[in-house]
Design goal:
Elements lengths: L1 E5 L5 H11 L3 E6 L11 E2 L7 H14 L8 E4 L10 H14 L2 E6 L4 H10 L17 H12 L1 H13 L2 E4 L2 H8 L7 E3 L22 E7 L9 H14 L4 E7 L3 H9 L3 E3 L9 H9 L2 E4 L3 H7 L8 E2 L4 H13 L4 H16 L1 H13 L1
Parallel strand pairs: 1-2, 1-4, 2-3, 4-5, 5-6, 6-7, 8-9, 8-10, 10-11, 11-12
Helix pairs in contact: 1-14, 3-6, 4-5, 4-7, 8-12, 10-13
Length: 369
């Protein structure tokens, strides 16, 4: 197949592209590298700013690149709006061009969009999510911006509806996104495919059977998004415990690092503090698990059931509650003998459910339907 992947979130498309090529398919990946994370791509299409000169340069590069966006068997969008760095109204024109000149288009349900925000913020089928917990609303500027954009911006709403209605299929990568789309009128064209993960050959942890003398807790901080996934709360609790148990644990903080540097620093640690509002581990957590780290993230029974996993429970599933987080982190600190088994289960979990080559085969099966 000839496959065009447009846009990037958390290295998903790059990982998928590599696996599809390994299976003998021709892939062109066009993205901005997910901004400062600098994920790899075949064509870097980045708009530096909304200033007139940068916008003109971006449009010229886009016009030149779009000559190559014809004749593909499959085009996949990372998001109904953010597959291109233009206003949603102009993005619809790009999408219609892609539909006219290619065989099939698939929409990725991989992040925020109108259907996910509507399901999360208004319908509320889950016990908790980015927007609420059992005890309080989760309010911060990023959430309010998402609500304003995805529910009240007419262009963005129309783009989501138009693409969902006319695309050939919708692929959801997390339990939450799958619930959002199967709760909508597009349930019959929505498929669930787990996230693709590769096992880095150089930065595998070789000491998975060793009980650490001092646990290293790793947390990545995105300056503008620390509240979005609850990393601010995770960091607060981890620092509190570090002061209480200075001989048993330490906190390693990474701030806005490029992906390769981020992975190298992560590999030197034992536990990843990922997020508190998700039912499901996402790319960051799964990559850490593949490397042999223990992950504190979303690991609810619903997501294990969706995968058909009945044995492994490697994820430290924290609730969006400070006391629950503190209790579970402290238990790890006081019982480091748990670490080897959790490391082993983490790697096996990724092998079973997220091996990139197996995931690529699942994509190919959906593409061929």
């Amino acid at each position: 197949m000839r496959i065009l992947l447009l846009g990037e979130y958390s290295n998903l498309h790059n990982t998928l592209a590599t696996a599809l090529r390994a299976l003998g398919h021709e892939v062109r990946l066009v993205s901005d590298g997910d901004d400062w994370k600098s994920y790899k791509q075949d064509v870097r299409l980045r708009r530096k700013s909304t200033k007139p000169f940068d916008t003109l340069r971006y449009l010229l590069c886009l016009h030149r690149e779009m000559r190559n966006w014809r004749g593909y068997d499959v085009v996949q969008l990372i998001n109904p709006v953010h597959f291109i760095d233009l206003k949603a109204e102009r993005g619809i024109l790009i999408y219609d061009y892609l539909r006219k000149h290619n065989k099939k288009i698939f929409l990725g349900a991989f992040g925020d969009d109108t259907y996910y925000i509507r399901n999360s913020y208004i319908d509320r089928p889950l016990r908790y999510c980015d927007y609420y917990t059992p005890t309080h609303e989760v309010t911060h500027p990023w959430n309010q911006s998402n609500i304003d954009n995805w529910l009240h911006n007419a262009g963005m709403v129309r783009s989501c509806q138009h693409i969902a209605q006319t695309c050939d299929g919708i692929i959801a990568a997390l339990y939450e996104y799958y619930v959002a789309y199967t709760s909508s009128e597009w349930r019959n064209k929505t498929k669930f495919i787990p996230l693709p993960i590769t096992f880095p050959p150089i930065i595998q942890k070789s000491d998975v059977d060793v009980i650490p003398q001092k646990l290293r807790f790793f947390i990545g901080i995105q300056r503008l998004r620390t509240q979005l996934k609850g990393t601010d709360i995770l960091l607060q609790v981890a620092k509190e415990l570090e002061a209480r148990y200075p001989d048993r644990m330490e906190v390693v903080v990474a701030k806005n690092l490029p992906f390769d540097e981020y992975l190298q620093l992560m590999a030197s640690c034992d536990v990843l503090l990922d997020q508190i509002y998700s039912y499901t581990p996402a790319m960051n957590a799964l990559q850490a698990m593949a490397m042999g780290l223990v992950v504190v993230s979303g690991g609810e029974e619903e997501q294990y059931e969706l995968l058909g996993e009945q044995e492994l429970r490697p994820i430290i599933n924290v609730q969006p509650d400070v006391n629950d987080i503190r209790t579970k982190l402290e238990d790890l600190i006081l019982h480091p003998e748990r670490i080897p088994l959790l490391r082993t289960q983490s790697k096996e979990y990724v092998r079973r459910h997220h091996n990139a080559l197996n995931i690529a085969q699942k994509y190919l099966s959906v593409y061929s339907q």
